[in-house]
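Re-run with default settings, no changes from the original entry. Doing this only to confirm the output is reproducible before filing.
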Amino acid sequence: MDLAELAIFVEAVQAGSIAGAARRLGIGAMAASRGLAALEQEVGARLVHRTTRALSPTTAGEAFLPHARAMLEAQANGIAAVRPSGAGLAGMLRITASAAFGRKVVAPMIPGFMRAHPALQVELLMTDEQVDIVARGIDVAVRIAKLRDNHLVARKLADNPRRLVASPAYLAERGMPQRIEDLAEHHCLLPTNHSHWAFVQAGKRIRQRVAGPFTANSIEAIHQACLGGLGIANLSSWDVDPAIRSGALVDIPLEDGISDPLAIWAVYPTAQLVPPKVRAFIDALDQALRKVLAAN
């Protein structure tokens, strides 16, 4: 099977067009179109739906996509295995992280990482939505959560304790909650489509229904709303500790429980033949995260 044709297919799905794949691969659009057609003829199935404006994988294409990526990764791993150790990393590394964590931890470490590996290209997708890393061709995702997808491989980087915080102005107006149940009477700032916060109480995990006048699909937006006095937020310590030290936010300890802690994970599609670029990035991220946590 022609690896160049596989690359055209993978990049076309990622870019959403033949022209986009051609630009990424540095070839002509006509050559890309012919290569994709040849691949479809070889596998005996239509792999993509084509329109004048967009391209998307067919059912067969979606089934074939992870195998195509695996073959391309195997090629990259084979080349890396015989490349001199001083040659550095090469190719495209696609990363996703939440907007807040990406801005504070991932993006600042990228310049140094790329200077250490000048032949490497990096694409960083910062979003608070949990993306399908296999379908999107993501090499590694940084997730702050309780992981549920058993089909992915995860490496824990650090614990992620969370704090209840509010602005001094909000607490002066509404008072300081003392117990978990008191939160039901407060304005709580929630991610979109969420209605509960989780707590650990006497060693058990419990859920408290909360509500407020403001919700957002962005943790950074919730942080800003909290700073602006709109209510109480439940945010990661690394995100709010500087604001607590400056007095812009106030930590809210409760008598009967603490916010259910999460963890910071590096997640990737498979444990087999993990590309050297992924291993190198995770190691570099681990070091950068330790520095951020130590500073907080």
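The first strand starts at residue 48 and ends at 50. The chain has three domains: 1-82, 86-150+275-296, 162-260.
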